[in-house]
Design goal:
- By secondary structure, the chain is an alpha/beta fold.
- The protein folds into 2 domains: about 200 residues, Spore Coat Polysaccharide Biosynthesis Protein SpsA, Chain A (Alpha-Beta Complex); about 30 residues, no CATH class.
- The chain is built from 11 helices and 13 strands.
- It has a 7-stranded mixed sheet with strand order 5-4-1-6-11-8-12. It has a two-stranded antiparallel ribbon with strand order 2-3. Strands 7-13 form a two-stranded antiparallel ribbon.
- Strand 4, helix 2 and strand 5 form a beta-alpha-beta unit.
- Helix 10 runs antiparallel to helix 11.
- The longest helix has 18 residues.
- The two termini are about 35 Å apart.
- Belongs to the glucose-1-phosphate thymidylyltransferase family.
- Its cofactor is Mg(2+).
- InterPro entries: G1P_thy_trans_s, NTP_transferase_dom, Nucleotide-diphossugar_trans.
- Keywords: Magnesium, Metal-binding, Nucleotidyltransferase, Transferase.
- It catalyses: dTTP + alpha-D-glucose 1-phosphate + H(+) = dTDP-alpha-D-glucose + diphosphate.
């Protein structure tokens, strides 16, 4: 099977977070001790993906590149793609078509945080499906705010309904999409919606019509955080801080994942730890190769 590639969609204008995003991309904002984009990047890394396209606005790309470089510090390879203007989530597949070059993909939104002990295994199950698409459903108390999965009696996805008045379930579709190699072609066939965007739901409906769309539901042991509002950004930072301080573990650290997967050496990790030696993040990296 062709190796799956990753996409991080880190564009958009971040208007829900104004005024704090009027001068900086929201995906560069801090979530406790790390930039927001580290968390979706970590999700791709936990799926074993090392070739990643990062889609940004024209004005923000230089800042992202200054932060993340070419990815080699984590054993990764980054391709930088500009999104001239935000025209829907499905537009990412059109923009990344040359990068994908016929490969299947795992796309994650740049303001989404995923956490859970079984996350790598869940991502591996989705990756094992060579054809079709997989979305990830998360139980929420207020499904009317999201795209919601409608299940049939056998637990198969029957429809995805955007912001339903009466929700068919409590499972919202998260910002993580595991799609096969036909995604760019399908995205090109989508007509813009009334708001002028290539809607991700329209793309998923094409897979659904083919009978090739499945849903992985995230149970009680998972957390999904969308950091697109002031309140949710603060909640995410507090969530990460609480777990890291209580357990002494890093969350959403590309440095940790790269070291534990063998993509970088202890010497490379040590260099990163020294780079951040004046703060707790650097101290945590320094301790990684000394503790199990």
């Amino acid at each position: 099977m062709t190796q799956r590639k990753g996409i991080i969609l880190a564009g958009g204008s971040g208007t829900r977070l104004w005024p704090i995003t009027m001068g900086v991309s929201k995906q560069l904002l801090p979530v406790y001790d790390k930039p927001m984009i580290y968390y979706p990047l970590s999700a791709l890394m936990l799926a074993g993906i090392r070739e990643i396209a990062i889609i940004t606005t024209p004005e923000d790309q230089v800042q992202f590149q200054r932060l993340m470089g070419d990815g080699s510090q984590w054993g990764l390879s980054f391709t930088w793609i500009i999104q001239p203007k935000p025209e829907g989530l499905a537009q990412a597949y059109v923009l990344a078509e040359d990068f994908l070059a016929g490969s299947p993909s795992l796309m994650v939104l740049g303001d989404n945080i995923f956490f859970g002990h079984g996350l790598p295994q869940m991502l591996a199950r989705a990756d094992a499906k060579p054809n079709g698409g997989t979305v990830f459903g998360y139980r929420v108390a207020d499904p009317e705010r999201y795209g919601v999965v409608d299940f049939d009696n056998q637990g198969n996805v029957r429809a995805i309904i955007e912001k339903p008045v009466v929700a068919p379930s409590h499972y919202a579709v998260t910002g993580l999409y595991c799609l096969d190699a036909t995604a760019p072609q399908k995205a090109r066939e989508i007509s813009p919606s009334a708001r002028g965007e290539l809607e991700i739901v329209s793309l998923l409906e094409m897979y659904l019509a083919e009978g090739t769309l499945s849903v992985e539901t995230m149970g009680r042991g998972y957390a999904w955080l969308d950091t697109g509002t002031h309140e949710s950004l603060l909640d995410a930072g507090n969530f990460v801080r609480t777990l890291e301080l209580r357990q002494g573990l890093l969350i959403g650290s590309p440095d940790e994942i790269a070291f534990k997967t063998g993509w970088i050496t202890a010497a490379q990790l040590t260099a990163r730890a020294k780079q951040f030696g004046k703060n707790a993040y650097g101290h945590s990296l320094a301790a990684l190769y000394k503790t199990p």
